[in-house]
Amino acid sequence: MTTIVGQRSAKKKADKLQERRHKLLALVHIAKKEIPLSDDEYRDVIAYWGVGSSADMSIPELEALVKYFESLGFKKKVPDPRDPGSGVGQIKALRERIKEEAKKLKNGEERLKGLVKKIAKEDDLRSCRNVKKLKQVLKVIRLLQDRE
């Protein structure tokens, strides 16, 4: 008998594997362009695994293919975790707006911490860099203001 928790755990694991697979496929296509390989050369390379398309490859096969491309000179661009990326101005503005609006609530700072943890799944507002989640936090704060 499978429990709900077991089902959720299995789905979460499947989602992570799918995400990994998509990232590897993206790397393969980036490498194909950067090396550059003609379509015929690319087909010859993936024929080694007995497939006609990288979409038919397993995760370990895709990882091996990326390593092969690296041996040909492809370099993965690893993003710097300290780099805020695009939208940094919008993120900063949203954070400031959220802080200002939270001050208008009773016990606003504590409530803001709880909202950020619940909605954005982050320990504090500074670590949240997801614009969509920041907008959700702001929307909930405004709803709470309307209720008070």
Task: Produce a short descriptive summary.
It is built from six helices and no strands.
Q: Total strand count, please? A: 0
Structural class: mainly alpha
Whole-number average pLDDT? 86
Indicate the low-confidence ranges by residue numbers: none
Helical amount:
55-70%
Indicate the overall shape. elongated
The largest β sheet comes out as: none
What is the number of helical segments per DSSP (H or I, 4+ residues)? Answer: 6
Radius of gyration: 22 Å
* Elements, N to C (H/E): HHHHHH
Strand content: under 5%
Quaternary structure type: single chain
Distance between the ends: 47 Å
- How many domains? The number is 2
Draw up the topology in text:
Blueprint: H1 4-34, H2 39-47, H3 59-71, H4 88-103, H5 108-120, H6 131-147
